[in-house]
Amino acid sequence: MMNEGRRNSYDVVSIPSYESLTEQSEISEKLPNDVAVTSQMVQNLLSDEERLRRCSKIRDIKSNAPTPPVSLAEDLLFCELDAFSNETCNYDASDLHVAEAFNSQLMILYEQGDIHSALHFLLDSLHNPFAPRAVGTVFVEQSIREEIIARIHDQMRPLSFKTALHPNYRKTKKVLTSLDVQIVSAAENRVPPPFSSPIVVCDCETKILGTPPTGVVCLRSFHDNLEIVEWCSKESLQFESISVWNECVESLYQLVATLNCNTFYFNSCNVSLEPITPFVAEEKTTVCIADGFHYETLLIGEQIKVVIFPIGSHIWQKDEEPSEPPPSPISFLNS
Length: 335
Description:
Elements (H helix, E strand, L loop, with lengths): L1 H7 L39 H13 L9 H4 L12 H4 L15 E5 L5 H13 L7 E7 L3 H10 L6 H4 L2 H10 L5 E4 L13 E4 L14 E6 L2 H10 L6 E5 L3 H10 L4 E4 L10 H5 L5 E4 L2 E8 L2 E8 L20 H4 L1
Parallel strand pairs: 1-2, 1-6, 2-5, 4-5, 6-7, 7-10
Antiparallel strand pairs: 3-4, 8-9, 9-10
């Protein structure tokens, strides 16, 4: 009975022996001795150290590149590919066009501003230049110009293949070859070929680079607000929003009153406009607080402008008052 139960609990399969097969597979046929081995039949051999270095480099690169065809992915590392075409990367041609939602943003960074936070948003735009509300131009106070350029350079990483193959980015790179301007891009050991580097162009008119978005960020320096106002009055590119980074709130309202823009972020960037949108649509001046941010609408001339900043960012810290001497001990405790 025990053997019968065990027999019923398994599917018995009869496997024919090798001798019982009437035909041998093609693989079992003996190969001739004079087969020529070509380079296409042998994968380039890398040392374990070199392969580990390349794989580690690829893992550190956060790109949105699509997976290559199986024929490539099976045999090659990304960094071993010499060239990429639309077919190789399997792109949808419609993805290479600029989204209708794109609107350029201007960033203004003062020496007393929160440089670390401002760079966070600037670097995001630098690596995603075709995203909605990406920073297209940044004004940096002259005293911190070299520091900002150095910090941007040190934090550059490869662009996604989608951005690198964008027609606007490629067109801008060709234009830059004929211009005598300062260009900041990543070192080759940080962004090795065939990857493409983000690009910062210093002191260059955006109209020279072509129709925006150009895929690069333009950097200019300034000494005072007047220089910013004069440049913006001559600039043909219209900015949907302006992000200002400074401790002094006075400079913000000077720019709000003089620059032709509807939305101003103070010590913040790309905050939701939903809480203030109904008042903007009705062209009403108002003040409200939502999600830790101060919102207000101002009527300047015939234009409604929105000002947004995190609560507390504009409040000056009070000087510490001298502390009062501690009360004398209660007498009966010492008796």
